[in-house]
Amino acid sequence: MSKTSDFNARFYCAPADGVSDVVVDFSGDTALESFYLFDWSDPNTVTESIDLSGCTALRTVALERLNALTSIDLSGLSALSRVYIVDALIPVIDLSNTPATSIAIQGAAVLSLDISGTLVTSYSDIGYLSNLPSLTTLVARDCALLIDLVISNARTTLTHLDVSGGVLDESHIRAILVDLSNFAPDNGVCDLSGGTNAPPSAGGLVAKANLEARGWTVSTNS
């Protein structure tokens, strides 16, 4: 596609019969600054994907009601600030190493979310996790500004949580361990080590031991 500073479109019609894959490819478009795509329905359940990789000027991505979208490539977006994805069938969303500060994602299909290295500061910046009822994996490694993380809305589904290299204080470390201990499935992995993450207090250590007794591998600072 030709280079453009803004893409804003609505799609209501499915692709022609016999088309097995539809790809919206803006990869490498260094002029693209915003990308909005809404209402892409597909009664023929065609696999559809979006490639925005290498769009180094892209600041905003907004996708909504794309019930046939199953994958998106957001790698190499060095200017990305805001991401809004609602009602898409994307199981894995990787925003790692982008400078995103606001991440709002909703969808029952999302199983894994990676926000490692982003510039989010609070759980409210990632939509409270309340709209991801199937989330099993949350990776937030090396988020140097993330001082406030609450997992209570995803605590019954998470089996892999990685906030290593973080800056969480003792109260957040304890709350995460207690929530996982009380509500998470058995046999998971939780990494809260590294960075300046606080060591768990007595209550956190009890929850950590309970998790380990249920088959979890839990890493914390000592």
Tell me what the structure shows.
The structure is a single chain. This protein has about 220 residues and is of the alpha/beta class. It is built from two helices and 14 strands. The protein has helices at about 170-185, 200-215, and strands spanning about 5-10, 20-25, 35-40, 45-50, 60-65, 70-75, 80-90, 90-95, 100-105, 110-115, 135-140, 160, 190, 215-220. β12, α1 (about 170-185) and β13 form a beta-alpha-beta unit.
State the gist of this model.
The protein has 222 residues and is α/β, with parallel strands linked by helices. Helix content is 12%, strand content 29%.
Counted beta strands: 14
Q: Quaternary status of these chains?
A: single chain
pLDDT averaged over residues? 87
Structural class: alpha/beta
**Percent range for helical residues?**
10-25%
Q: Tell me the distance between the termini.
A: 52 Å
Spatial strand arrangement across the major sheet:
8-10-11-12-13-14
Attribute tags:
14 strands; alpha/beta; 222 residues; 29% strand; six-stranded parallel sheet; five-stranded parallel sheet
